[in-house]
Amino acid sequence: MSRYFNQLIPSSIGTVVDEAGRCLMIQRTKEPYIGKWAMPGGKIELGEHPEAAIVREFEEETGLVTCVDRFAGVVSEVVPVQGGLSHFLMYVFRLNIVGGELRESEEGPLRWMAQGEIRDEGIPSDAFITSQLIFCDTPDAPRLLSLTSTNEGYQVDGLYR
Prior knowledge:
Residues 7-135 form the Nudix hydrolase domain. Its cofactor is Mg(2+). This protein is α+β, with helices and mostly antiparallel strands. The chain has a single domain (7-160), classed as Nucleoside Triphosphate Pyrophosphohydrolase (Alpha-Beta Complex), CATH 3.90.79. Helix content is 19%, strand content 45%. The protein has helices at residues 50-62, 115-121, 124-134; strands at 7-16, 23-27, 37-38, 41-43, 64-81, 84-100, 110-113, 144-149, 154-160. It has a six-stranded mixed beta sheet with strand order 4-1-6-5-8-9, sandwiched between helices. The chain has a three-stranded antiparallel beta sheet with strand order 3-2-7. A hairpin with a 2-residue loop joins strand 5 and strand 6. The longest helix is centred in the middle third of the chain and has 13 residues, at 50-62. The N and C termini lie far apart (35 Å).
C-alpha cells in the first residue's frame, strides 16, 4: 500500500533545463511509480514556503544549489491506489543552477532527458506537465492542471489559465 494512501500531499517539484533543452530528472525508488523518471521534489514541510521546499528538495536530491527562475503553475493530480486515492497538490517551478555539484542521492539516479525520453520513460503525467508548464511560458499557457493518473497513463480533467 502506498504511504500516501487516502491523503492530500502538498509538494513542490521542479527542474532545470540545460542548453540542449533537456530536463534533469530523477528515477523514482519509492511508490508510486517505482522505476519511472520524474522531476525532483518532495513534500512541503509544515510552515515552509513552496519555493523554499523546491530549493531544499532539489539540493537534497541532486547536490545542486538552485534559485527559482519562475513559478510555472500548480498541478492537482489524483492517483488511484488499492481501493483509495493519493492526491498530490504540486507547485511546479523552473529552476536555475547557482552552485553545488551534481551527485546522485539515495532518492535515485539522475539523468538529463529530452521531452521524448520523458514521454517514453517518465511518469505518464510528467511529459504533459513539463510540456505545459516547464517549457511553455506564454501568457495563454495553463497555470493549473487537474489530472487523474495511473501507471498506464493520465486523464486531463482540466486546464486553467
